[in-house]
């Protein structure tokens, strides 16, 4: 009987022990049973709030649209992990119907998870590049893309991610083996056809380079450039403020003309400081999100290189533990973004608090750098 890339072969008179039936062991079992159930609701709720805030009419700037698409990708990615979470509990991994459909859908669900993870990686790279471009072209600071251009970019990112991860759907053929008088199921995955082992290997390598290594390198460079650029501008701004203060103290201003000039200088300086604070918020937020992305995704790159160099690495228990930890760090990154937004933007807190059942009374005690009308410019 055929199920796409899956075949159910004749049954065998063999019964597996409970340990052999388990899909998760060691650190992976601990993560799936006790850590992921806490991470999942926090990640989904946090990213849903990000979506609602960033897609509101007053926040529909280009980076907000890109980050809202990233939040959607993160939500979808978390939902694709649910089958593995369920598979860690005995009520599911002992159930023959669950095991059958888990084996049938596993490779396709993995491909979909990789798609959303890859899309999120490219979207954070796009946000970082957009922010850096704005700092390099101050004259275009208030020029915004129309929404349709941002939507086209988002569509292109998802299309690229789907194309690069598509090999996961076709590279393997899974043989599902009925056991113990059809009360149990096991499965073995084989490359499809004589050329498919190379498709699986080099398809994974291309996915690794395009959707993981490239975003890590580009985001790292852009975050460094944004950080150093912000530091240099802060130094220049401090020097300019000192010069203006000195000029005001040493230049005599008499009568109404002097009063008007002082008021004009005060208004101009206030406007410049407001714009500078908004730009500072945007850069700090992007650098924080980008740095978090790099730190949490480097372990995934390390274990992929290990597996690519050593074909037998998957048999090593240490490798399995490293993979489990690396995958969970990616999940943690999906959760942290909400807290970064909440801590750094007073505007975001104001919009998010009603969804959290919180009210902001009086002065917001948490630090914020923004003074503009948008969460992120």
From TrEMBL:
Top-rank lineage group of the source organism: Eukaryota
InterPro entries in alphabetical order: GPCR_Rhodpsn, GPCR_Rhodpsn_7TM
Recorded GO MF terms: G protein-coupled receptor activity
Domain annotation G-protein coupled receptors family 1 profile: ranges: 46-341
Transmembrane segment boundaries: 34-55, 64-87, 107-129, 150-170, 208-227, 284-306, 318-343
Primary location class: membrane
Alphabetical list of SUPFAM superfamilies matching this protein: Family A G protein-coupled receptor-like (SSF81321)
Cellular compartments annotated: Membrane
This protein's record includes keyword Transcription: no
Keywords, alphabetical: Membrane, Transmembrane, Transmembrane helix
Entry annotated with the keyword RNA-binding: no
Entry's Gene Ontology cellular component terms: membrane
Matches recorded under Gene3D superfamilies: Rhodopsin 7-helix transmembrane proteins
Pfam families: 7tm_1 (PF00001)
Name of the protein in its database record: G-protein coupled receptors family 1 profile domain-containing protein
